[in-house]
Amino acid sequence: MVAFRGTDTSGRTSGLLLRCVLYSLLALGLMIVDKRYDHLGKIRRLLSVVAYPVEIAVASPFQGWDWFRDSVTTRGALRADKTRLEAELRMAEFRLQRYEALEAESQRLRALRDSTAGVTDKFVIGDIMNLDLDAFRERVMVDKGAGDGVFVGQAVVDAGGVFGQVARVGQLTSEVILISDAAHAIPVQINRNGLRTVAVGTGEVGRLKLPYLPTSADVVAGDLLVTSGLGGGFPAGYPVGTVAEVRRDPAQSLADVTVKPAAALDRSRELMFVWLKPQAAELPPMPASPAASAKAAPTPVIPKPPAKSPPKPNTT
């Protein structure tokens, strides 16, 4: 009450309280008018323009300090950031290599599946567990066995072509003999002209031989060899290799033909055991011979006409 009351020379209460009430009512009225009609918007915008330099002046010291603190980063902080980024880069490179390996594996499995389309009714993919590659044996151990239906003599292929055959079967694993093994032979056919022969292993992973072709045989470097299908072990028309070199010695009766296998015998990691589709389709019935038809068909009975009596001689 002391702030709003006073005594003038006449002894009356001063008009301080009255002026406070009037100003309050005026402010309330201005707020109502501004709320309803927005007459003071232009004034506020002008005041914001005037106050902007003041805001910049007040905020500049703080912004300048933040910029200075970020600019003068210590060498230890930079080294820590460098170490962290290098670790993240190594981890990213490791993951990228893993993704590339998975992509390559997916492509190999897709190639295996596509290469046997139309040839097999069933197939099983196995991974190579162990290698036994030397001058006398070309064998690999695969993690599929009798429990998966694998049997001795079964055809084994990879994404490139014929890989080998099952030589021995266990319950969980099986041993596959490569086509390059010196004890293995496979019937083949030259795709260009249909000439049939036998490809045998040499004991070297990247080389086969065609030892039974005469020097006059029509075979040239670059010819594709495919399985002939004889013997029933492998499907007909499956890639075996490509003729790499042909040597003809006039003093010899047989040509020296070297073949490069189509399968990646020293690089494949996944192999496919295939079950072949039955090749012998049901033959249509053969037409019967004329003699058999004559025997089988009933002979129609044709009635004979009655015999005519000889004409009587004319006695007159």
Based on the model shown, name its key terms.
alpha+beta; disordered N terminus
Give a verbal description of the structure.
There is one protein chain. This protein is an alpha+beta fold. Helices cover 32% and strands 24% of the residues. It contains four helices and twelve strands, in the order αααββββββββββββα. It has a six-stranded antiparallel β-barrel. It has a six-stranded antiparallel β-barrel with strand order 6-7-8-11-10-9. Strand 3 and strand 4 (162-169) form a beta hairpin. The longest helix is centred in the N-terminal third of the chain and has 41 residues, at 75-115. It is rod-shaped and about 140 Å long. It starts with 15 loop residues before the first helix and ends in a 20-residue tail after the last helix. 18% of the residues are buried. Residues 1-7 and 280-310 have low confidence and may be disordered.
**End-to-end span in angstroms?**
191 Å
Number of DSSP strand runs: 12
Mean pLDDT: 77
Give the percentage of residues in beta strands.
Answer: 15-25%
The profile of the biggest β sheet is: 6 strands, antiparallel, barrel
Q: From N to C, what is the helix and strand string?
A: HHHEEEEEEEEEEEEH
Percentage of residues assigned to helices: 25-40%
Number of helices: 4
Strand order, sheet with most strands: 1-2-5-4-3-12
- Return residue spans where pLDDT drops below 50 for at least 5 consecutive residues: 1-7, 280-310
Structural class determined from secondary elements? alpha+beta
Output the radius of gyration: 50 Å
Q: Quick one: overall form?
A: rod-shaped
